[in-house]
Amino acid sequence: MTALSSENCSFQYQLHQANQPLDGNCLLFLIILGKILLNILTLGMRRKIIYQNFMEYFCISLAFIDLLLLVNISIIFYFRDFVLLGIRFTKYHICLFTQIISFTYGFLHYPVFLTACIDYYLNFSKTTKLAFKCQKLFYFFIVILIWISVLAYVLGDPAVYHSLKAHSIYSYQCPFYSSTQSYWLSFAMVGILFMAFLTSWSEVTALVQAVRMTSYMNETILYFPFSSHCSYTLSSKKTLLPKFIICFLGTWLPFVLLQVIILLLKVQIPAYIEMNIPWLYFVNSFLIATVYWFNCHKLNSGDIALPVDPFVSWKCCFIPLTIHNLEQSEKPISIIIC
Length: 338
Description:
Mean pLDDT: 75
Number of helices: 12
Order of helices and strands: HHEEHHHHHHEEHHHHE
Largest sheet: 3 strands, antiparallel
Helix content: 55-70%
Oligomer: single chain
């Protein structure tokens, strides 16, 4: 009777151990699949004419890594237990690979943010001027270098090693890393947006009340009247700030509200979900607006190559277009293409 009871307990434990990761693996597969579909949708919604920059190459590399992770999960989940190149792969490796990817994604926010800042700074200062093909190779190697460096740091970090070792002992548990980098980066951007809105809320309110939406040259545009005596030959930070706020929030307001909710509720999101292409383009728009604002004295220079945002056209904020026949307006109007 004792042996029979032990056998039954062992069988029940093995059954629980087999069923528990299966449900988690199915959910993980669906989450990664949904993220890949979101990546494809976001990349497809970009404006077609895009200036080559670091963030574009990194977004494409992130989409490729997500696809590679999904393929690995699908192969292991389908074959369950197999040997490849002398290495035995089981369902345990699904969680292991996802944990490694989570740690890698979690440590990428600061390097990507700083590299994109340096890239836009160099473009504005014109300290580097490479040929188009050389520039593409340069961005490609920078992206590869960042991925390899962060992955090497993650695999060599003792804290990550102990976390993976603990999972190997308790294989029925599969915790995922939540990035503190993304939390503080999001906190900083939302805080800056809030402070910028407070300093120019009256101008923003006036522009919002005057703004109108229509279609012009197959693009959705926002337009509002401006005084004919205003000088736009040299843009100032004070006049640009409310326009940038309206243009930015006109595109990213739902994402900003989502970030506020996450910050207030302190939601713990796994890093393999939190690092995604919409988040990167949100950061990219914020960086471009910041660089434009700090370099407003250079915006009217015709010889400077301005970075192009895939979702927001910032150029029309500081170079207004004039359309006299739009709704038979008596005054010229400033065009913002969103």
